[in-house]
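Ticket opened by: R.M.
Priority: normal
Category: complex prediction / small molecule

The reporter submitted a protein together with dinuclear copper ion and asked that the result be attached to this ticket for the collaborator who will pick it up next week. Submitted input follows.
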Amino acid sequence: MKIGETFDRSRSTRAHWVVCGMAFATLGVTASCRGRQSAIEPAGRGAEEIADLFWWMTGGAVVIWVGVVALTVYAIRARPVAHGGHWNAMLIIGGGALLPTLVLAALLIYGLSMLPPLLASAPEGSLKINVVGEQWWWRVRYEPPNGEPVDLANEIRLPVGEPVQFELASPDVIHSFWIPSLGGKMDMIPGRRTRIALEPTRTGRFRGACAEYCGTAHALMAFDVVVMEKAEFERWLEAQRQSAAEPAGPLATLGRERFFANGCSACHAIRGTEAKGVVGPNLTHVGSRLTLGAGIVPNDRGGFVRWIEKTDHAKPGVHMPHFGMLPRAELDALAAYLESLQ
Ligand code: CUA
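Result attached by the on-call engineer:
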């Protein structure tokens, strides 16, 4: 059997597999790139620029890939012909050195030209938000240009169309603060203060994540991001500034009593009460947040019970101890109280 015959017979099968593989890869890539945590479905100025760079680089890669495949097919099928030394030198110098240098230099210049606007600070008088990466959650403090700071955790709400200055820090390990839909990522480094300005361009709910391996629960260190209209945002911030509401109903009242009896206030603060702990997240309005445990547990009665009863199951490596020894009725009461903190 001649080699050429084998090639011909298997060629259509192979081409079929290649086309199928590419189709599945394309479907998989596009399906996984959409949604609340997508850098190529931008909802912020920085993310728009980064998405542009991504598409230019992807376009460049596709052109190079098609060129290489075309040359490979040509090399397989072409009748061997002796080329002159001049032609060989042109091919090696042009295709092997000149072309990659030009393409990579162009992409480098394009990418570097993006850095100054991406790293620029928000204008003076912009809303400032301090975020501290903890093990493994996010301590958040709003510092509005006019008004008292507001402490919360694991959730960030932003006004649409306004630049916001983030000041980032960490007390112990390195984290990376990243809201892919809004912009680039920035490391949070112990002993240093890093900054990033973000400007959301459309309203919606997005997801932020830690983008630097920081320990056991790194993959369970997320946060919710909600971009709102300016007036709605102002109302939300005003509500967050208020002290906690009095518990309504006997179950929530019992829950508050058990909260203090079990020593929860040693680690958590609830504005307007005796709870002033600073080790764990501020719980003043924890019931109004979208999720619990830094983006991993639904915020409802069952979610609170699950979290308090088995913190270490929900988040292995968590510093908060579990309270599985408490009777179910007491867990329900605690959950009712925390849920009432709207
Ligand atoms: Cu924090 Cu990874």
